[in-house]
Structures are given as C-alpha cells and as structure tokens.
Amino acid sequence: MAKQGTATKRPRRERGSLNPEDIVAGAFELAEEISIDNLSMPLLGKHLGVGVTSIYWYFRKKEELLNAMTDRALRQYAFETPFIEAEDWRETLRKHAQTMRQTFLGNPILCDLILIRSALSEKAARLGGKQTERVIASLVEAGFSLEDAVETYSRVQLHVHGLVVLQRLSDKNRELSPESTAYYENVIIDPETTPLLAQAAAKGYHSGAPDDRNFEHGLDSILDHATRLLSGENHTQKKSTTARRATRSATTKTSKPRTRTATK
C-alpha cells in the first residue's frame, strides 16, 4: 500500500549539485513509495535532501514536474512497446497490445501519468502522436485503408486502456481501503437465483472483469474484424450500401412531384 505523506530523508546534498534529471528521477522513486497522488514538492525535497526552493528553481509547480515525468514515462513506454510489422500485422499487433497492457499493469506510475492523468505537455503529446503514426503507417502498408487502419488501432487502444484503467482504479481503491472490492466482485452469484452466472464462474468466466480471459477475447474480436476488413468482405458491403444509397438519391431527384387538380 502507498504510504500517506512520508518520504525517506537522504543526506543533505551539496549546493549546486541538483539538476532537473535528478529531480525527475527522485520524483519517480518517491512516487513508487507514496504514489503520484501523494507526491508533493516538500516531500520530494526531503527525499532528495535539498530545500524545496531548489526544486522550485527548475519546476515552479507540481504540474510542471508531472509533465516532465510524463515525458520520461512516454519515452519508456514507446521503447518497450514493439513495432507493428506490415507483413505480419495481426500477430505483431497482438503482441503490441499485450505488451502495452503488461507494461501499464506492471508500472502503476506509468499508468497514472499517461492514462489517468488528463494533462499532457506538448512534447508528450507529440511523442504519442508519432508513435500512433508509426502504427497507422504499418497497417496502411499491410493493405488497410487509412480509415480502417485508424479505426482498428483506435479499438485496440480503447480496449487496452479501458481494461488497464479499470484494474488500476480497483487497485487504487484497495490501497486506500484494503477491505474494498471491485465492482465486478460485488455481484452476488447464487446457483439458485443466477444459475447461468454460477456455471460460468465455476469455469473461470467473470462478467465485467478486466482479466486475461476477457482481454484476450476482446482482442481476438478486434483482430478478427480487422482481418475481415482487409479481406474485402466489409469493403464489398460498404460499396453495396453506398451504391444503394446513390440509387435511392438519384431516384428521388428524378421523380416528379405530384400535382393536384384544382376543383371548381
């Protein structure tokens, strides 16, 4: 459990020995102990063995420090997440999604900075855009239309991020209150009143749980749909629908409006 408002005090540093990189590195160390939510400039100063004014010299407020931490976190995230290869797009996209999820689950600070914290610096936003651009480019190279490539990767991102955030929020609640349970754990399953759910639970199926089984099932569904898109099945359906709409539109335009005969 993250500690509330405590930090290990280091020996006093020599004057002038502090730099922004040391501050950011120390902030990550402290956040591992007390969480991003409890991180503060005074506690960070104590952790680094410097006066808090030394930190304010480089970062005027906590928001600027969090931006710098997010920049570093995104660089780490981009480095750890494998690229998508056009010639083997399905399996490499699967590995990309799996590694993305494992990276966030294995590093709560990374998750809090990138997924839960809403603000991003311009540098971080550009880095995220460049990474997404590379994935889209690989999918387009694999044969996807630009629209299908964007929609496919968007679904993968939403699936991964959504399940990771649900798990992280559940973990954060447990940090605050060890007795608390996740929403999907509060569902009462009784063999008499909910026999189907009871049978499913006995086989390891849990409705709404962000677990491995539900993650892989959802990912398979996204990849299966993407495979159909690439095979042309959905393209044919879209062309047929577009043709029908064009025909209806042309018929409407050429049809003459009815006129009423005046009665005397």
Number of helices: 11
Structural class: mainly alpha
CATH fold assignment of the largest domain: Tetracycline Repressor, domain 2
The general outline is: flat
User: How do the SSEs run, as a string of H and E?
Assistant: HHHHHHHHHHH
The first-to-last residue Cα distance is: 91 Å
Low-confidence stretches: none
The major pleated sheet works out as: none
Task: Give keywords.
single chain; about 260 residues; mainly alpha; Arc Repressor Mutant, subunit A; Tetracycline Repressor, domain 2; 2 domains; DNA-bd_HTH_TetR-type_CS
What does this structure look like?
- One of its GO terms (biological process) is negative regulation of DNA-templated transcription.
- Residues 237-247, 255-264 have a biased composition (Basic residues).
- Residues 228-264 are annotated as: Disordered.
- Residues 40-59 bind DNA.
- InterPro entries: DNA-bd_HTH_TetR-type_CS, Homeodomain-like_sf, HTH-type_TetR-like_transc_reg, HTH_TetR, Repressor_TetR_C, Tet_transcr_reg_TetR-rel_C_sf.
- The chain is mainly alpha-helical and 264 residues long.
- It folds into two domains: 1-60, Homeodomain-like (Arc Repressor Mutant, subunit A, Orthogonal Bundle); 82-185 and 208-234, Tetracycline Repressor, domain 2 (Orthogonal Bundle).
- It is 66% helix and 0% strand.
- It is built from eleven helices and no strands.
- The protein has helices at 20-34, 41-48, 52-56, 62-80, 89-106, 108-116, 122-141, 146-176, 195-202, 212-231, 233-254.
- It is flat.
- The chain starts with 19 loop residues before the first helix and ends in a 10-residue tail after the last helix.
- The model has no long low-confidence stretch (mean pLDDT 83).
